[in-house]
Design brief:
heterodimer, A: 293 residues, mainly alpha, MetI-like fold, 2 domains, B: 302 residues, two-stranded antiparallel sheet, 74% helix, 1% strand, globular
Chain lengths: 293, 302
């Protein structure tokens, strides 16, 4: 009697263990499948970029690997189209936009967090309500404004409307408010000016948030497509997104998909490297309120 | 000490700090908001000669009767209705899976986030060549379809439903990172003691999921549904990546694409029609967000 009971218990335990293992295995397989779906386009883009044009075009069954990798497509990407120029443009655009955004946002966030003035809460509420305005609504007028100011095909025209980011002001203000009031009072007694306090105390303390905001803005700038497309039609001012679109439409004189994929790799790598370095910061920043687009 | 600075300076100083932000927001957000309303009401506005015929709702009626707009409306709605539930459900499954494992978890999380940091246009091109026939083959996806006994379809220049399928797949692929990220952190923040109590009571896995996990993270699910709706309604650059700039010709335009085409491009130069279309989009998104909020208030408070 006692023995059978023990056997029962054992078999139940065994069954439970077997079930646990099955569930775990199924979970891992499922997760691995999604991982493959995510990675496959990246694999395919690198693979296609190292196949020669002749090999690619004559394949009647696309092969999953290549025995004769070539870098000629990368050479073509930088010589046949002005990819280098698009890169430099994007770099200039990203650096200036992010820098101006940081200055503007830090100053505004500081005013909202530390300085006292009439109507502060009302004005901040007005700022917050602007977060709900979709960019599609304001793009139309901005397009007309920039056109009227004769700023089409200039960096000023690209940058000016891209600077505003209410969300980042909000994020920075929240962070600034966490810095203890005592520090501010102590600095005031020492006769430290507000600007000095902001740069010597606030910014160093809040560096993590500032880094997060910077990275998010850099990603946003690097991927910008809609506004640059509207405001530039001169290739000398194209950013990488427009460059890719231009290559898609007009290509390398022929539909050269391997060379196209080489440009796609070159455009994607900087952000992927940035992501791998700042993985935690980026994911934390995005989960705090970023959405794509 | 406090009165070291004259009162007038203390009053003005905050505004100096705010001035750059106010200028930028004023010029490029507040003024455009008012202006877009005015544009949408000016009939027959000509941007070259700065003249108009009158004020009224003609622009709205023109847009609502434009077959291109109706096509864009249909495409956008189909995209929203398919991708929002699909991506949210899939993200929920993946997040639950992720939070039930320990080894490799961080690797999976990193991989799953990759689409977020890639250029939409760039990866869109990769999706295009996966689905597009080449000179001597039908493309990789068609090869798979044929391997399973199906017939090859031209996904990029073919029938509407085939193009829509690619568009939906790409959209889901692109929006998953954000949803997985939000849901995994929501799952991680559920108080462990609920699970322990349930386990002591011998509650089954599926019951724990439906009775504890799901209700606890439901606010986040609703948040994702709302942002998902808004995001999908604004779809545009993914369509451009897959089907090219001339979306009207491809029959794959979206509402946002229609707005931009009206503004600029081959058929462009009509800020009034663009404004009317943008405001119609805004009204749709606002209505759906309000409905979502009303439903979620009812459900989440249970």
């Amino acid at each position: 009697m006692e023995k059978t009971k023990q056997n029962d218990f054992r078999s139940i335990e065994k069954k439970a263990a077997a079930r646990r293992i099955t569930v775990q295995t199924v979970t891992y397989i499922f997760l691995a499948v999604w991982g493959l779906i995510v990675l496959f386009p990246f694999y395919w883009m690198v693979l296609s970029s190292v196949k020669s044009y002749g090999t690619y075009i004559s394949e009647d069954t696309p092969s999953f690997f290549t025995l004769a990798p070539t870098l000629e497509n990368y050479k073509e990407a930088f010589t046949a189209v002005t990819l280098g120029k698009y890169f430099v443009n994007t770099l200039i655009f990203t650096l200036i936009t992010t820098a101006v955004m940081l200055i503007v946002s830090v100053l505004a966030a500081y005013a909202f967090a530390r300085l006292e003035f009439k109507g502060r809460n009302l004005l901040f509420a007005a700022f917050l309500s602007l977060m709900m305005i979709p960019s599609e609504l304001v793009v139309i007028t901005n397009f007309v404004t920039i056109t009227n100011w004769d700023l089409r095909n200039t960096f000023a025209g690209l940058i000016l409307p891209s600077v505003t980011s209410v969300f980042y002001i909000y994020l920075l203000k929240e962070q600034f408010e966490l810095v203890p009031d005592e520090l501010y009072k102590a600095a005031k007694i020492d006769g430290t000016s507000d600007l000095k306090y902001l740069f010597k105390v606030m910014i160093p303390i809040c560096k993590p948030t500032i880094v997060t905001v910077t990275i998010l803005k850099v990603i946003e700038c690097w991927n910008a497509y809609v506004w640059p497309r509207l405001i530039t039609d001169d290739k000398a001012y194209f950013l990488v997104s427009n460059g890719i679109q231009e290559i898609r439409e007009n290509g390398f004189g022929r539909e050269n998909i391997p060379a196209m994929m080489a440009t796609v790799v070159v455009v994607s790598v900087p952000l992927i490297v940035l992501f791998l370095i700042f993985r935690n910061k980026i994911m934390e920043g995005v989960s705090r309120g970023g959405t794509k687009g | 000490m406090k009165n070291k600075q004259p009162a007038i300076i203390r009053q003005i100083k905050p505004w100096l700090y705010l001035l750059p932000a106010l200028l930028f927001l004023g010029f490029f957000m507040v003024y455009p908001l008012i202006d877009v309303l005015i544009y949408s009401l000016e009939e027959g506005y000509n941007s070259a000669s700065q003249t108009m015929m009158g004020v009224g709702f003609y622009n709205y009626s023109y847009v609502l009767h434009d077959p291109y707009f109706l096509q864009a409306l249909k495409n956008t709605f189909v995209l929203v209705i398919i991708t929002v539930p699909l991506s949210t459900g899939l993200a929920l499954l993946i997040s639950v899976g992720l939070s039930s494992i320990k080894p490799l978890r961080s690797l999976f999380q990193t991989v799953y986030f990759l689409p977020y940091v890639t250029n939409t246009l760039a990866v869109g091109l990769v999706f295009m060549i996966l689905f597009k026939p080449t000179a001597y083959s039908d493309g990789l996806i068609n090869l798979l379809i044929k391997a399973f006994g199906g017939n090859a379809v031209d996904f990029i220049d073919g029938p509407w439903w085939a193009k829509m399928t690619v568009m939906c797949l790409y959209t889901v692929w692109i929006v998953m990172p954000f949803k997985i990220l939000i849901l995994t952190s929501a799952l991680a923040s559920v108080n462990q003691s609920y699970y322990d109590a349930a386990r002591v009571d011998g509650t089954s896995r599926s019951r724990i999921f439906w009775r504890i996990t799901l209700p606890m993270i439901s606010p986040m699910i609703f948040y994702l549904v709302i942002t998902g709706f808004i995001g999908a309604f604004k779809a545009y650059s993914d369509a451009v990546a897959l089907f090219g700039v001339n979306l009207n010709a491809a029959g794959m335009n979206t509402i946002v694409g229609y707005v931009y085409d009206m503004l600029y491009g081959n058929s462009g130069g009509y800020p009034s029609f663009a404004s009317a279309a943008a405001l119609i989009l805004f009204a749709i998104v606002l209505t759906i967000t309000v409905i979502n909020l009303m439903i979620s208030n009812k459900k989440v408070s249970v």
